[in-house]
Amino acid sequence: MSKILLLEDDPLLAKSLQKYLSKNGYEVEWVKDGNQAIEATYESKYQLYLFDINVPLMQGDDLLKSLRDAGDMTPTILISALVDIESMTKGFRSGADDYVKKPFVPEELLVRIEAKTDRLKQTLHYKEYELLVESEQIFYKGEEIFLPSIAKSIFVSLLKNYPNPVTKEELLLLLEAQNDLALRVNITKLKQKVDAQIENVRGVGYKLT
Q1: Which domains does the chain have, with CATH numbers?
Q2: pLDDT tens sequence across 44-63
């Protein structure tokens, strides 16, 4: 079941959405202000954020920008009564995947939510790791893990190709310094950060075993 974090300060709307989305197969956690939303993102993982923009303490689009800056790429739909181009532009530049204008009918919102969560359903598995293909989020024993950008790129490539090898040429493209030594160093660093067996396939590249 996909889990949604709903940030909405209107109790009537929030409870209505919670009930409607629950009936359609989603688990919805409701928070009333930006600070509560921040705490929730630290404590749990979600498949989708549904943020109203005009909420207390921290606006939804500002919260989203902070999450994106921290590397949180969870798909996000912003909700707002503001329909001017400037507000919408700010929302998308903050990292929104979609923008819904109030008032809206629940069916419209559901279609937009399904479009985002369906893309996340393709999940690859390796040992106790899970990779959400679309968002490239990596989970270990159910908890999302965060790696340095190059290490993550290499690990994602290995996970997507498992159990087949990734060629050396493909992996070199992920590096700033594209040479054999740099690749070996980065593979070693990755091995130190994840519980994974990475094998050198002579004359080909590397693979997970």
Answers
A1: 2-119 (3.40.50.2300), 123-208 (1.10.10.10)
A2: 888 899 999 999 989 999 99
